[in-house]
Design a protein that fits this description.
The complex is a heterodimer of chains A (305) and B (348).
Chain A (H helix, E strand, L loop, with lengths): L1 H28 L13 H10 L6 H13 L14 H36 L4 H15 L2 H15 L11 H31 L2 H8 L4 H13 L1 H15 L3 H6 L5 H10 L3 H29 L7
Helix pairs in contact in A: 1-13, 4-5, 4-7, 4-10, 4-13, 5-7, 6-7, 7-9, 7-10, 8-9, 10-13, 12-13
Chain B lengths: L21 H7 L8 H11 L1 H23 L21 H8 L18 H37 L1 H16 L2 H11 L1 H7 L7 H5 L1 H13 L2 H14 L3 H8 L4 H12 L1 H24 L11 H8 L7 H29 L6
Helix pairs in contact in B: 2-16, 3-5, 3-16, 5-6, 5-10, 5-11, 5-14, 5-15, 5-16, 7-10, 11-14, 12-13, 14-15, 14-16, 15-16
The chains are: A mainly alpha (305), B mainly alpha (348).
């Protein structure tokens, strides 16, 4: 177990390093720079700024410096938002996105798993068809369509919910609804098909024949086996959701990390791009390792090697 | 002749050796042709009502977006004076005057946008772009993904380990970052390319759209590669692969002829399900303003443009939104139907 975790962590570090390297060189290949768009700035001032942030040095030397600093936990200052470090910005924006994203994952799990189970248990009945239709539609409708429809009906026509910002619980309703649509539908489908698979297994019949109560059959024998694919999906999804959705943050003007990332890319804020990319990559990689370990606890038959 | 009671000897009579009657011959005739893989699958597909309806919807959308615009009296970039923000079926003053003079004017079925362009034709062109992106991108993904996945699985060991680690890394890079960076990075080279004779199409298609294709080619094949790899890992242990190798067939040919043809069911299904997700991604990018170049519409950019005027002209938003959901939904349902028809074991 310890050896396995050590190996996975080693691979994770290699992955993060590769992502950082790809991003660094690609980002610098792109024409334009962080100080080009600013108004009325003299060439001398630009040169001074570039010297201050070390942008005048050769690319490879900058790469080595950056990686060295990043290994010490120093991700540098933002090039555009003067006086703030990249860490400050992530610390400020991430909780906003994480709150919306965390709620989204909860909603998706709390709705998706039971509904998927019900559909599998009532296979071929009306309820199953209804759930399947809703799930297929949920996968087919892009999030920006859902966002705008919600905004139109609840925000503009009915005036029930506020449309901008995140200051009360009411503000969370629409973004969370819009974000959780797709994962809920996806989990429903996953849960239904894996539950159907498990229900057809021999051990289910054995359990029933031995007279295990329905409640225990469902929760101990069926659910525990059927939930594995959902865990695989939820891990990386959690990482992507808590770091913020670009579209939803743009439409509902939520001051989160997703929107910050787009602004950073468009403004060539090199350090902020690198910081957020490494942050996201680390989260995804950690979630993948966690998923594998959780697997082991849910299904002891799985051997980690 | 006396028979041993425990013998297995047959009791044969002289009648058993008579020629067969016509009736007996009839019963031996094969009534049905042997059912091939394709026929069997198609038979199951045709029975599936949902899949057939989705095919009909897809064909309708294709007619609507590829054939109808050729006969349509307006063009997607033609700006009509005084015809800004018309309601559906409404005419501008100038057009009304022409109608009063006895001329026939084709109605603006969906009205016009704020630049005075006919919205119906823009929606048609938009769905054409979205469909094209979906199909071409999926083609790219299919080629790269199946080649990569099958090579990784076939050679196994270190090759597999390294190739799959690369897949993991690509999976981790935020796609939006690569798309934006690539579209900026490719702008200058593509801009130069479009002045080279023979490459004029680059300008029409637009640099952004080409960078979307490049990004698909770089990023989105990983799912397909994983799928193919898992199939090939299973198939490469089959006897026919050993037999082919014993006969001296080369690696490349085994992969192409034996392994990939045997996972054709999975390939069809994954490809069909990839089309809607490519359309999804394109519309998402166009919505963020990183998709198609300006005069060309796509369903995503139409929806994005319509958001600002949502209060007054909600139909400008609803039409592309509805159409894009319809396209993605029917491709998804068709993919499910194909899966049930050609690859039943994939279902669970």
């Amino acid at each position: 177990m310890a050896k396995y975790i050590a190996k996975r962590v080693g691979l994770a570090i290699v992955t993060i390093w590769a992502v950082a390297t790809i991003t660094f060189f690609l980002m610098n290949m792109v024409p334009g720079g962080p100080f080009l768009s600013e108004k009325a700035i003299s060439p001398q001032a630009t040169a001074a700024l570039e010297a201050k942030y070390g942008l005048d040095k050769p690319l490879f030397q900058r790469y080595l410096t950056y990686i060295g600093d990043a290994l010490h936990g120093d991700f540098g200052d933002s090039l555009k938002q003067r006086g703030r470090t990249v860490m400050d910005i992530i610390k400020m924006k991430f909780p906003v996105s994480a709150r919306v994203g965390g709620l989204t994952v909860c909603v998706a799990l709390l709705l998706g798993i039971p509904l998927g189970c019900i559909a599998a248990l009532k296979r071929g009945k009306f309820l199953d068809s209804l759930i399947s239709v809703v799930a297929t539609c949920g996968i087919a409708v892009p999030s920006f369509v859902i966002c705008t429809l919600l905004l139109y009906f609840f925000g503009v026509k009915l005036m029930l919910l506020p449309t901008v910002g995140l200051s009360s619980w009411k503000h969370f309703v629409m973004p969370v609804m819009a974000l959780s649509f797709y994962p809920t539908a996806y989990i429903m489908r996953l849960m239904r098909s894996s539950m159907l698979d498990v229900l057809g297994q021999d051990y289910m019949r054995t359990a029933k024949a031995k007279g295990v109560a329905g409640f225990f059959i469902l929760f101990k024998h069926a659910l525990r086996n059927a939930i594995l694919p959902v865990i695989t999906y939820v891990g990386p999804m959690l990482a992507y959701t808590v770091t913020g959705s670009f579209v939803v943050e743009k439409i509902f003007t939520i001051p989160g990390l997703g929107g910050e990332f787009i602004t950073a890319i468009n403004g060539r804020d090199y350090t902020l791009i690198m910081g957020t990319t490494i942050f996201l990559a680390t989260l995804i990689v950690i979630m993948n390792v966690v998923v594998d370990i959780v697997y082991k606890f849910v299904d002891p038959r799985i051997k980690l090697k | 002749m006396k028979q041993n009671p425990i013998s297995f000897q047959l009791k044969l009579n002289p009648e058993d050796f008579l020629p067969a009657t016509e009736e007996e011959k009839q019963s031996q005739v094969i009534m049905r042709e042997s059912v091939s893989f394709w026929k069997d699958g198609m038979r199951r597909l045709v029975k599936n009502k949902v899949a057939m309806v989705s095919i009909a919807v897809i064909i309708l959308v294709m007619i609507f977006s590829f054939i109808v615009p050729a006969f349509y009296p307006y063009s997607y970039k033609e700006q009509m004076k005084g015809a800004n923000n018309l309601r559906p079926m409404q005419y501008s003053e100038e057009e009304q005057a022409r109608i009063d003079a006895g001329e026939k004017v084709f109605p603006h079925i969906f009205g016009t946008d704020k630049m005075g362009r006919d919205y119906a034709i823009r929606v048609m062109m938009g769905s054409r772009i979205s469909l094209l992106v979906g199909l071409i991108a999926t083609g790219i993904i299919l080629i790269i993904g199946s080649a990569y996945g099958s090579i990784a699985a076939f050679f196994g060991g270190w090759v597999d380990l390294i190739m799959m680690r690369i897949v993991d890394i690509i999976y981790t890079v935020p796609d939006i970052l690569l798309i934006v960076l690539l579209s900026f990075a490719l702008k200058a080279p593509l801009g130069n390319l479009k002045t080279v004779p023979g490459f004029g199409w680059v300008g029409i298609v637009g640099e952004n759209l080409i960078s979307i294709f490049v990004v698909f080619a770089l990023l989105y094949w990983v799912g397909m590669a994983r799928m193919v790899r898992s199939q090939v890992l299973m198939l490469k242990e089959s006897e026919y692969v050993t037999a082919a190798r014993a006969l001296g067939v080369g690696n490349a040919k085994i992969i192409k002829r034996h392994l990939l043809t045997n996972c054709i069911g999975t390939l069809i299904v994954t490809t069909t399900l990839q089309i809607p997700s490519s359309i999804f991604t394109e519309s998402f990018l166009s919505f963020l303003g990183m998709g198609v170049a300006v005069p060309l519409p796509s369903l995503g950019s139409l929806a994005s443009d319509a958001i600002n005027g949502m209060n007054t002209y909600p139909y400008l938003l609803f039409i592309p939104a509805l159409l894009i959901s319809l396209i993605i939904l029917s491709f998804n349902l068709l993919g499910d139907g194909l899966r049930d028809a050609f690859d039943p074991k994939l279902k669970n």
